[in-house]
Amino acid sequence: MVLGVLEGKSVNLRVMEKEDLPLFAEWVNKPEFFGEYNPLRQISKAEIEKDFDKSALEQTGFIIEKKDGSKIGYICHFILAHPAGKLLEIGYSLVPNERGKGNGTEAVEIMVDYLFLSKDMTRVQACTDTRNHASQKVLEKAGFKKEGTMRKYFFLRGELRDACMYSILREGWKEPKILTRTS
Questions:
Q1: Is-contact 145 172, C-beta < 8 A?
Q2: Which of 22, 87, 134, 182 lies in disulfide reach of 80, CB 3.0 to 4.6 Å?
Q3: Facing residues of 104 across strands?
């Protein structure tokens, strides 16, 4: 499967390019992009560019675009080292006015299809703040199962917070929801 654009029904995932970095920097530095789950840390464009160049082997980011080409969010997959081997985790966020319309669920479904069609992985996982019910709903609608709660898993806004771990296993996925095997 050649990377470029992964086409869905309502949204496409396009591999992030250097030209997207100014928009990405704008998004991640606006508190409303991540909502109350934003770490409140400004990230410079130079830092984003440096991370973009450095992380290309371990992470692939995609811009979520509507069919008219408007850019509405970001989704990525990244490799985590684990004693049992490499794991893939996904992360995503949409601009506020595009939430609650099914775009996040479709983007996650496209990403899962892509990962299981193109990589030899047993599972894809995602973590979310236990208070982020919208993200949990997206994952559940996309076929992820809640595995449990990791207590005091990350530090955000001056406190340790709990996170929910979700995953979808290859055997639970079975067939693509959106992409085809020849995409």
A1: yes
A2: 87
A3: none
109-139 per-position pLDDT tens digit: 999 999 999 888 889 999 999 999 999 999 9
* Cβ contact 120:150 at 8 Å: no
**Count of C-beta atoms within a 10 Å radius of residue 84:** 6
| CA dist 76 → 16, 62, 73 (Å) | 9, 6, 10
> Which of these, 94, 111, 135, 141, lies nearest to 13 by C-alpha position?
111
Residue ranges and CATH numbers for the domains of the chain are 5-173 (3.40.630.30)
- Distance, CA of 55 to CA of 124 (rounded, Å): 19
